[in-house]
Amino acid sequence: MDNSATVSTSTVNEKWTTDVSEFHITAGKLYLSPILDMHNREIISWNISKNPNYEQVDNMLDIAFHKYPNIEGLIFHSDQGWQYQMNQYHKTLYEHGIIQSMLRKGNCLDNCVMENFFGKMKNEMFYGHEYEFHTLEELECAMNEYIHYYNKERIQTK
Prior knowledge:
Elements: H1 3-7, E1 15-18, E2 21-25, E3 28-37, E4 43-49, H2 54-67, E5 75-78, H3 87-95, E6 99-102, H4 112-126, H5 136-152
Parallel strand pairs: 1-5, 5-6
Antiparallel strand pairs: 1-3, 2-3, 3-4
């Protein structure tokens, strides 16, 4: 698969991508599950959870579908994580007319746009600051603030 074809878009809500990333501090772990629009790089929906579970993904999808109720034909990329192989996930995408695109196993380049976001987020707000977060609530607040900053203020390059 040529990943440049995977990333190329002509408009918003044409291709989305998702993944889950772990943030670990002394107080515990949080898992971020965002949806990123591959055209304008906006994080359109996200959920933060203490455990990686399907409810997290389901909540993230509900938020996205409430924000964008008419997205039939959209292509939705993910890796082969267990969440994205569940029947409920397939059913939810099907019910909204979304085409699921599951990327090659073990090849992070296929999901380079999402991995790039996680890298920016962790480099800009997390790495080197892990010990500044004394509670999971402080970390969650910082994660939410970063996503708002990323969407509204941070310069995006394509």
